[in-house]
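Notes from the 1:1 (GR / supervisor)

We went over the backlog. Supervisor wanted to see one worked example end to end before approving the batch request, so GR pasted a single chain during the call. The sequence is below; no edits were made to it. Supervisor asked that the structure be written out right there so they could see what the output format looks like.
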Amino acid sequence: MRYGALVVLLIVLLSSSAIAQSASPSINPQATSILQLSLASLVGNTPLQDLKLTGSAQWSTAPSDSSGPVTLEALSTNLSRIDVGVASITEVRDSSSSIPVGWWKDAEGNVREMPTHNCWSPASWFLPYGFITAALGNDAVVLYVRRETQNGIAVDHVRYYRNVTAKTAAFAALLRQLTTVDLFLDVTTHLPVSVSFNLHPDEDINTDLPVEVRFSDYRVVNGIRVPFRIQRFLQGGLQFDATLDSAIVNGGLPTTEFTLQ
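Structure output shown during the call:
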């Protein structure tokens, strides 16, 4: 199901007739250098192809909470799947095509499509690597904001958004709004401490719902640094809190894993 005229309009605007080729990206040498250091700190010389994380988590979704085992899976940075709790709450994201999509399944087994405007942040939002590679992408505008303190840690604050030439200034501004992400990188290790972006109500693209994802307890698994504690806050409230106990890096996840059945 699509979300009315708003989503139809967004899809039309995202068609090839509405977007020209990406303009040359804006290069900020300081921000780019920090991002490259962060990428090297995360993966070194090991290409990250897929990742499977398991542990326990609590997922707070009004009016109830679900807690129990959690599985987080990512294939490259384009496909992701989350299964949390004994109620089998599931979220699947796919950003492999020009229009990103997502679905979620509730505790009763009902599958619902996510609104397109909430699918523009990296699909694997629980994976710091996805945000860094997006910021270093060919269509990204990268800005260095400042050095500051985040969650008690000295960080470099870097911001990025997609750089797309649209037929209207209004749509260019809209896509910038939907793709803006703030990265907070430890000044010593260059590892992501947290990321921030906005989601929106299903039928209200103009109302921002701030999201913050925090990463901690990094451990090296097969040459990749993986956060074993992942917390996601929605409008300041803790929505998702995962403590992981295992990680499989480049284990060969099939694409069939990223479907809802």
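Supervisor's comment: The first strand starts at residue 50 and ends at 61.
Batch request approved.
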